[in-house]
Design a protein that fits this description.
By secondary structure, this protein is an alpha+beta fold. It has 7 helices and 13 strands. It has a 7-stranded mixed sheet. Strand 5 and strand 6 form a beta hairpin. Helix 4 packs across helix 7. The two termini are 27 Å apart.
């Protein structure tokens, strides 16, 4: 994998954001691969194709690329809130590559992949409307909250300038892929409980450990009056998907 961003045809673009967009998209077309199947390349979509930058010619999986010159923070600026919300509810969000590049070195430093089945409504934040003086006055965008995405669903493709072997990327993707089988209206709770479990920072954990974060889940689902019951239910779902194992006596283990 070549980490240098291409420079061909960049002289045609005046602004730095335009050059970065063209350079990173061109880099992706050469270097990114499909995590869903064995395809070594992704095909660029036609220009101005909304929300999708690449697709896999083998399995037809769609992908979007977002790039930034700053290191990953807690939020990723995304498109219109209403459009993102609709895409999640209709289960048609693309897989998302988030790319961090070094402007001075003109090279790729980090890339993470968020699978399409890892998005829930709790992971997006509505931004304030644009002011009346803005060109698109009243337009409402959104942020993707990385803190609301399960850790294992932020799959490393490149880490601090070191590429991860495609085999390991695909293994991480396939491990979580059973989430794809859940109906979208139920998947949000499962993802949020999984995020809590992975945030515990230990392989083995107890039901009591997860209960300790019930107030966090209550803030996300304020209308639910039975959060503890919902936690137990979602741990059973994660067990059935083989993402965690039940050890007995209220103890669990995250599956390898």
């Amino acid at each position: 994998m070549d980490l240098q961003l291409p420079v061909e045809n960049l002289a045609n673009y005046k602004s730095a954001p335009q050059r970065a967009r063209v350079g990173t998209e061109s880099w992706g077309a050469i270097n990114l691969f499909c995590p869903s199947c064995s395809s070594a390349r992704l095909n660029p979509t036609p220009k101005n194709h909304a929300a999708i930058d690449y697709y896999c010619n083998s399995c037809r999986s769609p992908f979007q690329l977002k790039s930034r010159s700053k290191a990953f923070g807690t939020k990723i600026v995304d498109a219109a809130y209403s459009e993102m919300k609709r895409a999640i509810l209709e289960d048609r969000t693309p897989n998302l590559f988030v790319l961090h590049y070094d402007m001075e070195q003109w090279s790729v430093r980090n890339v993470i992949l968020i699978p399409h089945f890892a998005f829930s409504l709790s992971a997006i934040e509505c931004r304030p409307p644009l002011s009346a003086m803005a060109r698109r006055a009243g337009w409402i965008g959104c942020n993707i909250l990385l803190s609301r995405i399960p850790q294992d669903a932020q799959i490393r493709i490149i880490s601090d300038g070191v590429p991860i072997h495609p085999r390991d990327v695909r293994r991480a993707y396939q491990r979580l892929r059973p989430l794809e089988s859940l109906r979208i209206e139920k998947r949000g709770w499962t993802l949020d409980v999984l995020r809590v479990v992975q945030g515990l920072g230990k392989v083995e954990f107890s039901l009591r450990d997860v209960y300790a974060h019930a107030s966090t889940l209550k803030k996300i689902y304020p209308l639910n009056e039975h959060v503890h019951d919902k936690i137990r239910q979602q741990l059973q779902v994660l067990r059935d998907l083989r993402i965690i194992e039940f050890l007995g006596n209220g103890r669990y283990r995250i599956s390898a």
